[in-house]
């Protein structure tokens, strides 16, 4: 389950972001996960609960925003969803696309933290 290593990295990076901002405990972490990133959101939630234990994120909530995989067809000049399993052929002109526009994301987009005590 590689989601545990991903969750551990999220906990570490979110903690660093909070410390750099002078904040205390983290209450919420938002991540964007692409449909083709190879991450199972339910497994990531479970792994996050394990990885956050004993850290400044111990009570933090994880919000996973899923990103649909989309490709661009140059011939039609349009974007289309590739689906799962991915199918990179344009549904309009039946030509293959090599231009993946979204779907591989795995990024922290937000960290909310409680202000540090003074």
Describe this structure in words.
The chain contains 2 helices and 6 strands. The protein is elongated and about 60 Å long. It folds into 2 domains: 1-68 and 103-118, 2-Layer Sandwich (hypothetical protein PF0899 fold), CATH 3.30.2320.50; 69-101, no CATH class. The strands form 2 sheets. Strands 2-1-6 form a 3-stranded mixed beta sheet, with helices on one face. A 3-stranded antiparallel beta sheet has the order 4-3-5, with no helix packed on it. Helix 1 (3-20) packs across helix 2 (41-52). The longest helix has 18 residues, at 3-20. The protein is an alpha+beta fold. The mean pLDDT is 94.
Q: Quick one: biggest sheet?
A: 3 strands, mixed
Classify the secondary structure makeup into a structural class.
Answer: alpha+beta
Number of strands: 6
Order of helices and strands: HEHEEEEE
- CATH class descriptor name of the largest domain: Alpha Beta
Number of separate helices: 2
Helix content bin: 25-40%
Could you name the ranges where pLDDT drops below 50 across 5 or more consecutive residues? Answer: none
Distance linking N and C termini = 40 Å
Beta strand %? 25-35%
- C-alpha Rg, in Å? 18 Å
InterPro entries: Hydgase_Ni_incorp_HypA/HybF_CS (IPR020538), HypA/HybF (IPR000688)
Pfam families: HypA (PF01155)
Binding site for Ni(2+): 2
Protein name: Hydrogenase maturation factor HypA
């Amino acid at each position: 389950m590689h989601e545990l290593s991903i969750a551990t990295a999220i906990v570490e990076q979110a903690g660093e972001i909070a410390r750099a901002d002078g904040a205390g405990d983290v209450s919420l972490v938002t991540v964007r996960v692409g449909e083709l990133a190879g991450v199972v959101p339910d497994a990531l939630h479970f792994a996050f609960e394990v990885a956050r234990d004993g850290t400044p994120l111990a009570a933090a909530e994880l919000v996973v925003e899923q990103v649909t995989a989309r490709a661009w067809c140059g011939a039609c000049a349009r974007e289309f969803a590739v689906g799962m399993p991915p199918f990179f052929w344009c549904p309009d002109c039946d030509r293959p696309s090599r231009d993946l526009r979204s779907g591989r994301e795995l990024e922290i987009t937000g960290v909310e933290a409680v202000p540090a005590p003074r």
